Amino acid sequence: MPTLFYHAGACSLAPHIVLEWTGAPYQAVAVEFGSAELRAVNPAGAVPVLREDDGWTLTQAGAILHHLACKHPEADLAGGDGLRAQAELDRWSSFFTGDLHPAFFPLFTPQRYTTSREQADREAVQEAARKLVRQRLALLDAHLEGRDWILGRRSVIDAYAFPMLRWAAKLLPEGTQGWAHVQALHDRIAADPAVQTVLAREEGT
Known about the structure:
Layout: E1 3-6, H1 13-22, E2 27-30, H2 36-39, E3 49-51, E4 57-59, H3 61-71, H4 83-108, H5 119-144, H6 156-171, H7 180-190, H8 193-203
Parallel strand pairs: 1-2
Antiparallel strand pairs: 1-3, 3-4
């Protein structure tokens, strides 16, 4: 059966949720970043990695989510049919891949974004990252006004958003309470029984 290699709390949470939403059988394997086990399926040492039955592997969260939406049309997770629906899926996948996700990188590893070893300078890098995350969340919040889901119906894109909304809630001093529509989306996804199953698996509860 298909195998997802994931790391708890990482963006691999998104395809983990989507696999659960499809209802199709799969295996989930927890791995450490850069481990030999992970590098055997992805030389970059990053998650997520999806390995299909025939041994074909796919990396990059956005690509995996798009693949799963196409592979399981019965799950209705592509956000709609037609050219523009596909374009909206691609647009928001690109937003999370290229805008929101990278905004968190300086928060996770500020030492990579400055040559200074001073703690104050690294904290300044992190504060700049928080400002950028807030800007991206404001864009998402404005889009969600009048919508329950990012594409108007539940899709792989909502799953993609979820780990990043969890990061924001944890890493921003104010959490996500200041963006009511973003908070509502987070809570809506978190309440889903399939999502709770995945979170329990990843958190070992």
